[in-house]
Each structure stands twice: as structure tokens, then as C-alpha cells.
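Q: Predict the bound structure with beta-D-fructofuranose.
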Amino acid sequence: MSSFYLVLEKMYTSRYTEGSIKMRSEYYNERYRPQYHFSPEYGWMNDPNGLVYYDGEYHLFYQFYPLGIVHGPMHWGHAVSTDLLRWNHLPIAMYPDDVGFMFSGCVVVDEHNTSGFQHGKEKTLVAVFTQENNGRQVQSIAYSNDRGRTWEKYSGNPVLERPEFRDFRDPKVFWHSETEKWIMVLAVKDRVHFYNSPNLKEWEFTGEFGSSDGSHDGVWECPDLFEMMVDGDKNNKKWVLTVSINGKLSGMQYFIGKFDGNTFVNENPSEEVRWIDSGKDFYAAVSWSDIPAADGRRLWIGWMNCWPYAEKIPAGKWRGNMSIVRELVLSKIDGFGLKLVQKPVSELESIRKGEIISVRDVWYSALDNAISGLMLDTYEILLEIDMSKSNSDQLGFKLFRDEDGYVDVGVDVSKGKVFIDRRHIACHHKMEGFAERHEAGLIRKDGIIKLHIYVDRASLEMFVNEGENVFTELIFSESDSRSIEFYCTEGDAYIKSLTIYSLDSIWKCPEKA
Ligand code: FRU
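A: Predicted complex:
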């Protein structure tokens, strides 16, 4: 390792000790500081990396540049949690070296010691990641025999290089029991490649997918591939391939199909584009590896940001945060077919601090504006409207409301759409790409419509009808006093239920805990 990186490593290591939480009341309390989302204490963060569960801990590594708040020579930051919610910062896991900067990748538990790296009781965690050096991208590995606390880069790095490809990155690896091989899915410009390996060190190309499927509005990045049951039926399984797109547009799409250990076959028309999120700020999401079978969930987290403005959003001493952790489900939806559905993980219920309001079976008009004017910092709204009884034109919430504006979140009943409109916040007009309205068609237009909304200091996540549609949006309102308004235009709406909880911060000073 060059001396420059050795000096850096020393500097950071002396600054951080495991579990250190500063005893300051301003800790994680800045205006735009997410209260129940993960963000680094300082520095720049982008993609989640190396999501793995091992021995009671969920690991979250992430693209990290500690010396600034823009993308720089990337490192792997590191945090762990026992509940997917409260994160404990650990020292930087991996530094750039002579092979290159530390780009995105994954971590797996090498259960059967196929790599031969295990030399004690603990199973070995193996990281597989891209290293970037002056535009050249190669895949490398590193291993840890102490529960992810320290990492050794493999002396034979890189383990996979194909100089003919410039965009050649973001490996996601899993154990494929049918072929008894490790499988790597890798983003290669406008498609994904598949490689397999018996030992995580030697990789062989087996196939590719995507050059003429789905959206190509940008380069493909951060793929993931996993098998899912359809509506929990173990006799009906499909493979899901997810991929992020970075270009004119920044977003995530998915494909449903078959995977035989060598390559993926799309079951839907190749020109069909299936977006994962209807908002603008959900990117580079990948799923946790090695979740115990007894849990069985497919869990993932995304970077809550969007490359076109990622380096320009308001920032303090840090820039970037993650979404909440979500559970993925593959569901058959009447009138649509199979859909990748996202739900907030149930662990989030543990930060509900107080029930601010809870009403059932009432008309909007009878509520008498009981909600409007409520001032809450971070909160969760659950609304169920019975459309068969309602004749309203549009209903929803004006959130982040102050003298300068609001964010409009709701259902356009006449058009059968759900939307989030960021155009009414004054300072959004100063930021390119922010003053926009995002909408999605409602799949179920009559019957019950459910909105489940998470509001943090600078974001909104809305799950429509149990996650059939999800909106992930950053919101920057300049005022500190922000109220809620519940509205319904024309006619009336029948509220099956409406509950609002205020939410606790996950970043506690020890003396307040
Ligand atoms: C996605 C991405 C990856 C790359 C990483 C670099 O956001 O561009 O393709 O590995 O970020 O930080």
C-alpha cells in the first residue's frame, strides 16, 4: 500500500473506536440530519455495500469518502446493527490501495471455507468489490476472520479483469446450491455479465443479459439477482434481477425470469420497463446476503439520492443517507400481474414514540380539520380511504408546510394516480431537478387505498397499497416549523382509518438513552 494511504489509515484509526458515540446534544441533530435513517457522522456517502448478516449482526458497508462531501477516492465505511434500525459506527473497513479505489461490491459468508481463508472458529466473511484506477475497473476480494472487524486484502488481487470493458463493476455474489458454485452478477455498461467460481478467487464467464432489455437511459450499475417465492408459495419461484441506471435519468428497474446458473432469461417483453420506485431518490439498492432461513426475508436498502444532483444537495459535515430498510415480496396483483413489492420492515414499529391521532370509520368532513396545523418533526402516517364511498376529486396531505410552501402528497382520484409534488417548496426551485411532480398509476382504483408515509427531517417515503408503488424523495424545506395539513377537494372521503405516530430518533446520546 502506498505511504499516502498508510498515513490516512493511521489518522482515521486514531479518530474512531468501535461504538464511539459522542456525548453532545447536537449529535445527529442538524437541520437536515435524518433521525431514523442511516447517515455517516461526516464525509460523503453513496451506495450501500457488503450487506451481510452474520452471527446476530446486520452489516452495512457503504461507499465513503471521509475527507470531503463530494465523491472522492472511495473507501468502505462500516456500521452494524442488531435490528436493522439502530446503527453502530465502526472504523473504516477498507481503504484505497495500489490496485485502486474501493468501489461497490458485496460480502458473503464463506460457510464451507471454499476460499480457504478461514483459520479459526469464526466463519470467514469474503468481500468481492470493484477497484477503480484511472478509469480501469477490476474485481478484487478481501476477507475477515473476526466478524468483519478487520479485513485483509487478497494478495492475488485483482481476481477478475477484462480490460476490454471500461464500465465493469459492482459485483454481487451468492452461493448457487444447484450448481454448487458462487455466482457473480456484474454491471458491464449496458448489460450484466454472469461469472461463476468454486472458491471466490477464480471466475469464469457464463453469460450475459440485458443489452436489448428494459431501460437504457444510462449506464447499468449495482445489479442484484435472487430467487423469490410468488406470494410465499414455495412451489412457485421466480428469479428477480434488479439494476440501477445512471445517466440522463437515475433510477432502478427490475426483471422477472429464470436463472439456470449461467444466464438470466426475461419472462416479460424485452421492451417493457419495470421501475422499482416512482420517486427520484432510491438508488443502488442491493439485498442482504445470508439472512437466516428462519427469517427468510429478502431485505434491502438503497442510497437515498440521485446522481444528477447528488453532489449539490444541501449538506453539513456529511452528505448522503440511506433509505429505510425494506422487505421485498414478489406478488401477483390483479390487473397487473407479477410485481416486485417493497414494504417497510416491521422493526421500524419500535421507534413509534406516541400516537398523535387515531381515528376509524369517519368522513373527512366530520374530522373538522383535527389534524391540520399539527407540528411534528419526524413521523409516520397510515391512511386508509374507502374509495367506494368517497366522491372526492383529490385528497392527501400538505407536508413540510410553512409560510413558504409545502410538499403535496396524495391521490388524484379523477386520474387514478398517486403523486408527490415537490414544486411548492421555495428552495427546491434553486436546485435543478427538485421542483418536480412525480406520479404513478393506481393499480386498484376502487376499494381501499392505503398510504403509508414516513417523514424524516429531509425526506419522504410513501408506500402505496402495501408497497405496490413506492415513492422515495428527498425534501429540503428551509424552515424549522413545519406543519401537516390533511385536505380533500370537492366532495368527501370516507376514512377507514388514519393514524399518525411521532417517531423517535435512532441516534441517541448515551446520557439520554
Ligand atoms: C453507483 C456507483 C457504482 C460505483 C460506485 C462508486 O452509485 O457509480 O457503479 O461502484 O457508485 O462510488
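A: Residues 46-47, 63, 74, 103-104, 130, 169-170, 221-222, 246, 284 surround beta-D-fructofuranose (CB under 6 Å).
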